[in-house]
Specification:
Blueprint lengths: L1 H17 L2 E5 L4 E9 L3 E6 L3 E6 L3 E5 L4 E5 L4 E9 L2 E5 L5 E5 L3 E5 L1 H8 L2 E11 L5 E13 L3 E14 L6 E16 L4 E12 L4 E17 L3 E16 L9 E17 L4 E11 L7 E12 L4 E12 L9 E13 L5
Antiparallel strand pairs: 1-2, 1-5, 2-3, 2-10, 3-4, 6-7, 6-10, 7-8, 8-9, 11-12, 11-22, 12-13, 13-14, 14-15, 15-16, 16-17, 17-18, 18-19, 19-20, 20-21, 21-22
């Protein structure tokens, strides 16, 4: 009986070892466990006995993985498969291309399946603001803003939308005092460590500018002035084509359509001040090249304080300026709102 138990235990140990990754260090030590992730400097290994262990890449002699690993390369591509290393070269056994050899100098990250799924997934935020009065006054003001993004080493895809609505029912008849919706999509594609190209499509509706639709298609070139885990600062410029469709008014009984070309220039800042407080800010200027002297300006800033991993309190200020509104209308629309922020996913937000 004792011999049978020892044999069963030995088989279990061998089975665990066979299904584990092995990392051999230059001093001869060997770590057995699961390779979770790595960057260009360190590797995280989850071991059975020692827990999570971080080792320097410079101290690693070789690795042999029993699980598929995902290798992120400098050119933005990802190679997946079981991995062995020899003389500074990764040999990846893939399901589609067979064995692929990758120089260690070309590898920027190594991830297991769970970490890769988190990187490839979308992350996002939902900001809400609400003000409601009843009694001697009856007013409602509501704002809703949503952003989602998918970020890889090679590109970033973002979608965004904001809606603002306000009404006053204090004295009949009920009247709407604010109603605007705007949103869009943008893609950034890295062409180097600092440079990127981008394309965008923006859409906007504003009842009190008599604006039925503004759609903007544009793109250009950008530069990461600051690119750190806690702070990014980008400058970008390019051009776009804008179409504006205004409602019929007394001045324009059949409505008004304007189609123009614009220059696009702006900056964007994302800063994590500490573990709880984050600040984002973006400003864009659109000089009109079809109607010289006219322009649009957009500014957005948000400060968010984290209450829980998925919950924050946010304060947002937005400004939209149009130098040539319809006659009798103001060119400037500002929004200040505060409320809860819900966060999902891992990454940019």
């Amino acid at each position: 009986m004792r011999r049978s138990l020892l044999l069963a235990g030995l088989l279990c140990v061998l089975a665990v070892a066979a299904n584990a990754d092995q990392v051999t260090l230059k001093n001869g030590d060997r770590l057995t466990g699961i390779i979770v992730s790595s960057d260009a400097k360190t590797m995280l290994i989850k071991t059975e006995l020692a827990g999570d262990v971080n080792v320097k890449w410079d101290d690693v002699s070789s690795i042999v993985s029993s699980q598929p690993l995902y290798l992120g390369l400098k050119d933005g591509q990802t190679v997946a498969g079981t991995v062995t290393t020899t003389d500074g070269t990764f040999t990846v056994t893939t399901n589609t291309a067979g064995k692929v050899e990758v120089p260690k100098a070309s590898v920027t990250a190594v991830r297991d399946a769970a970490e890769q799924k988190a990187v490839d997934a979308w992350s996002g935020i939902l900001d809400t603001g609400l003000s409601l009065t009843r009694g001697n006054s009856a007013t409602l003001a509501f704002s809703l803003s949503a952003k989602a993004a998918r970020v890889t080493k090679r590109d970033k895809i973002s979608v965004y939308s904001t809606a603002v609505y306000a009404s006053d029912d204090t004295t009949p008849p009920s009247r709407t005092t604010a109603h605007a919706i705007r949103g869009g999509i943008r893609g950034d594609f890295n062409v180097g460590d600092r440079w990127f190209v981008f394309g965008l499509a923006d859409f906007e509706y504003d009842q009190f500018q008599d604006l039925d639709l503004r759609n903007v298609l544009g793109g250009g070139l950008g530069y990461h002035v600051i690119k750190r885990p806690t702070t990014t600062f980008d400058l970008f410029g390019g051009g776009d084509y804008e179409q504006e469709y205004f409602s019929a008014t007394t001045t324009f009984p059949t409505g008004l359509t304007r189609k123009t070309g614009e220059v696009l220039a702006g900056e964007e800042l994302n800063m994590k001040l500490n573990d709880r407080l984050a600040l984002t800010e973006k400003a864009s200027l659109f000089p009109n090249i079809s109607d010289s002297g006219q322009y649009r300006f957009q500014f957005d800033a948000t400060a968010a304080t984290k209450l829980k991993t998925w919950l924050s309190w946010q304060v947002t200020f937005s400004d939209r300026y149009l130098s040539n509104p319809l006659p009798g209308l103001k060119g400037n629309d500002e929004l200040l709102s505060t409320g809860l922020r819900l966060t999902f996913g891992k990454g940019v937000f």
